[in-house]
Amino acid sequence: MKRKSLFSAVLAFVMLSVSAGAAAAPDPATEAQLPQAEPAAGQYLADTGVITDLLYLCGLPLAPEGGGDPASGHAERSIELDRTGERTGKVVYHLSGKTAIINAVTGEEMSFSQLETGEEVCVIAGEALMLSEPPQGHALVVLAGLPEDGAYPACRQVTAVRRGDAGVSAQVGEDLIYHLDPEKTKVVGKYGLDSLKPGDLVAAWYDDVAESYPAQAWPRQLVIVPQHAGWLEADETEIRINGAPLDLPEGVTPRYEDGELLLPLRSVGEALGCTVTWEAARPDQVTVSGPEGLSYTLELDGSLVKAVNRIVYVRAACIIGQHDLFLAQA
User: Fold this and answer.
1) What is the CATH architecture of 154-225?
2) Where are the extended beta strands (E) located within 85-166?
3) What is the rounded CA–CA span in Å between residue 93 and residue 138?
4) Which fold has domain 3-20+37-144?
5) Does domain 230-327 have CATH number 3.20.20?
6) Is residue 170 packed enough to be buried (19+ CB in 10 Å), middle (13-18) or exposed (0-12)?
7) CA neighbor of 41 nearest in space, from 124, 145, 148, 130
8) Hey, do 3-20+37-144 and 154-225 end up sharing a CATH topology, with the first three levels equal?
9) In contact, 183 and 219? CB cutoff 8 Å
10) Which residues pair with 276 in a beta bridge?
């Protein structure tokens, strides 16, 4: 792709975006970890390929955590990738201030300016790609400096965290547990084991996997990449936000309908620091307003919100989307 056409594709993407979160350990098996990055918990994809273009779209602000190239000021950063894995063809990935660029051997953080055209990288990204030519998406992690043997870390999403005297156990996806010992697991980067929470992405280096269900591994090195502001877990009797149980009124509990989790809106909203308002003048609406200008109105039409025995319930997917939460395993 010519630089001008890549710039046009990136600009179109940005404009559209503007308008539009352990079991007992048996002996490790001798079978080594597959030397490849894996999609994280079925929600992310891994694309390996060669960088064919790098672009700063100057003048656009980065997310608060981001930096960009100091010489460019604020910039939207993008890479064009010629994919060499299961998926082929070119794709453009956009990097925000939250995108982690990691050396695939050492785990050390890298800057965008250290990436080079012609270099092979692995990009961990959301599955949803913009239907353009070439397709475009948001990069969550870029693994650079890939070793020649292809044995770069697996990237997965943490779905549950358990802490104990022996260390931390992290469920990643449905079929694997990482056992993380502060004395044996080297945690690289700005986030330590004490900050690990459900919803985070982790890049893990390990050699063996124990043959159990779920399988178990003991990473020797780990990088934590936060993705959400917090997490929520619930079953039919209890709701926890960031690990703390909610004090629910008598008779108010989560419920399931057609396999989908419904949460009591007022209890959850107020626990998140919001005000939940219903007015007789607008009986078919409820408004949630919170800190930093957060405000949204929901229709009591049964699609997202419904009243049951005078209690207003909302679909969990709505709450976690509005408040950047991860729905963790209860």
Assistant:
1) Beta Barrel (2.40)
2) 88-103, 120-126, 136-144, 154-164
3) 5
4) OB fold (Dihydrolipoamide Acetyltransferase, E2P) (2.40.50)
5) no
6) buried
7) 124
8) yes
9) no
10) 288
| C-alpha span between 304 and 83 (Å, rounded) | 39
Q: How many CA atoms within 13 Å lie on the side-chain side of 220?
A: 10
The better pLDDT of the pair 150, 251 is held by 251
| Verdict on whether the full-model pTM lies above 0.70 | yes
pLDDT at 29 over 90: no
- Distance CA(85)–CA(87), nearest Å, equals 5
List the structure tokens of 275.
């005000």
Q: How far apart are CA 282 and CA 295, in angstroms?
A: 16
Residue tagged 């502001």 (tokens):
229
Highest mean pLDDT pick, 24-28, 146-150, 181-185, 304-308: 181-185
**Does residue 150 contact residue 32 with C-beta atoms inside 8 Å?**
no
* Average pLDDT of the segment spanning 55-71: 49
CB 56 within 8 A of CB 72: yes
What is the residue whose two structure tokens read 């063996």? 208
Residues 6+ apart with CB under 8 A from 152: 35, 36, 37, 104, 105, 122, 143, 146
How buried is 36 (Cβ within 10 angstroms: 0-12 exposed, 13-18 middle, 19+ buried)? middle
pLDDT at 11 > cutoff 50: no
| Cα separation, 9 vs 136, whole angstroms | 8
The C-alpha atoms of residue 275 and residue 55 are separated, in whole angstroms, by 42
**SS3 (DSSP) at 311:** strand
Q: Residue 99, Cβ neighbours under 10 Å: how many?
A: 23
pLDDT for the residue 65: 42
- Pairing verdict, β 44-58 and 75-84: antiparallel
State the CB neighbour count (10 A cutoff) for residue 307. 14
pLDDT at site 39:
38
Are 77 and 63 contacting, i.e. CB atoms less than 8 angstroms apart? no
| Per-domain residue ranges of the chain | 3-20+37-144, 154-225, 230-327
